[in-house]
């Protein structure tokens, strides 16, 4: 049985192909895809076995230094899945899709977002970087177009002229960000994933994603920090 469970079926291959072509897949879509792949290939399907199904694929991806990883949307806390190349942990994995100047703009945008207090950078601040690039100066109109492409390709998210890292970027770049921004990058104290948009305890400095804050403090009239037990002074949205 264990041997059978570890075999890569056509259902697994189909699931992996769709995930790779999507770039990132929301949890409910991944569950539907799991069911569809199993039913199409007439293999055993159980609605609560998605993680096992993915573990089997990951065991076959291991020698290729690849892995399907699960992450959460910092916006609403929903699960997402993305295929990560473990052999290329740096931004260089984007090099085949973007020019050197576009990558430089992305790095500088990432700096602004990660070093900000709220995990966002305004379009004004990003566009002001366009004529400070080392590789070549970029006109603001060009920079606007490049930012649009980063949003379309799901590396950045944009809301009312404010940019943050897309869930896909956080899943794929987690190790890169944790090692390159050691002084400021933190993991959420609740879900242990990288937290870009987070609330921070004023007493001990731990951070939590906003959806994790909502869940953790649900129903509590006097929220207290899960680590130091001091009163949680941030607004509980």
Automatic annotation (TrEMBL):
Keyword terms, alphabetized: Chromosome, DNA damage, DNA recombination, DNA repair, Metal-binding, Nucleus, Telomere, Transferase, Ubl conjugation pathway, Zinc, Zinc-finger
Principal subcellular localization: nucleus
Gene3D superfamilies per record: 3.90.1150.220, Winged helix-like DNA-binding domain superfamily/Winged helix DNA-binding domain, Zinc/RING finger domain, C3HC4 (zinc finger)
A biological-process GO annotation: double-strand break repair via homologous recombination
KW Zinc-finger (keyword) present: yes
Pfam families: SMC_Nse1, zf-RING-like
Location relative to the cell: Chromosome, Telomere; Nucleus
Chemical reaction(s) catalysed: S-ubiquitinyl-[E2 ubiquitin-conjugating enzyme]-L-cysteine + [acceptor protein]-L-lysine = [E2 ubiquitin-conjugating enzyme]-L-cysteine + N(6)-ubiquitinyl-[acceptor protein]-L-lysine
Highest rank taxon of the organism: Eukaryota
The protein's Enzyme Commission number: 2.3.2.27
Example of a GO cellular component annotation carried by this entry: chromosome, telomeric region
A molecular-function term among this protein's GO annotations: zinc ion binding
Record CDD domains: RING-CH-C4HC3_NSE1
Broad enzyme group: transferase
Domain RING-type: 188-229
Record function comment: RING-type zinc finger-containing E3 ubiquitin ligase that assembles with melanoma antigen protein (MAGE) to catalyze the direct transfer of ubiquitin from E2 ubiquitin-conjugating enzyme to a specific substrate. Involved in maintenance of genome integrity, DNA damage response and DNA repair.
Subunit: Component of the Smc5-Smc6 complex.
Annotated family: Belongs to the NSE1 family.
Protein's name according to its UniProt entry: Non-structural maintenance of chromosomes element 1 homolog
UniProt organism field: Loxia curvirostra (Red crossbill)
The encoding gene: Nsmce1
């Amino acid at each position: 049985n264990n041997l059978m469970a570890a075999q890569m079926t056509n259902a697994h291959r189909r699931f992996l192909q769709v995930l790779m072509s999507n770039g990132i897949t929301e949890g409910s879509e991944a569950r539907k895809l799991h069911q569809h792949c199993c039913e199409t290939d007439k293999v055993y399907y159980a609605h609560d076995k998605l993680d096992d199904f993915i573990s089997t694929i990951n065991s076959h991806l291991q020698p290729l230094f690849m892995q399907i990883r699960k992450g959460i949307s910092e916006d609403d806390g929903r699960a997402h899945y993305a295929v990560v190349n473990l052999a290329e942990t740096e931004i260089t994995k984007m090099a085949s899709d973007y020019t050197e100047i576009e990558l430089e703009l992305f790095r500088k945008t990432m700096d602004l977002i990660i070093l900000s207090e709220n995990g966002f950078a305004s379009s004004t601040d990003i566009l002001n970087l366009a004529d400070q690039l080392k590789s070549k100066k970029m006109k603001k109109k060009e920079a606007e177009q490049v930012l649009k492409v980063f949003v379309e390709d799901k590396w950045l998210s944009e809301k009312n002229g404010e940019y943050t890292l897309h869930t896909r970027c956080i899943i794929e770049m987690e190790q890169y960000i944790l090692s390159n921004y050691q002084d400021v990058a933190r993991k959420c104290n609740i879900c242990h994933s990288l937290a870009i948009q987070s609330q921070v305890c004023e007493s001990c400095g731990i951070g939590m994603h906003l959806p994790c804050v909502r869940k953790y403090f649900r129903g509590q009239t006097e929220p207290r920090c899960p680590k130091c037990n001091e009163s949680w002074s941030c607004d509980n949205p």
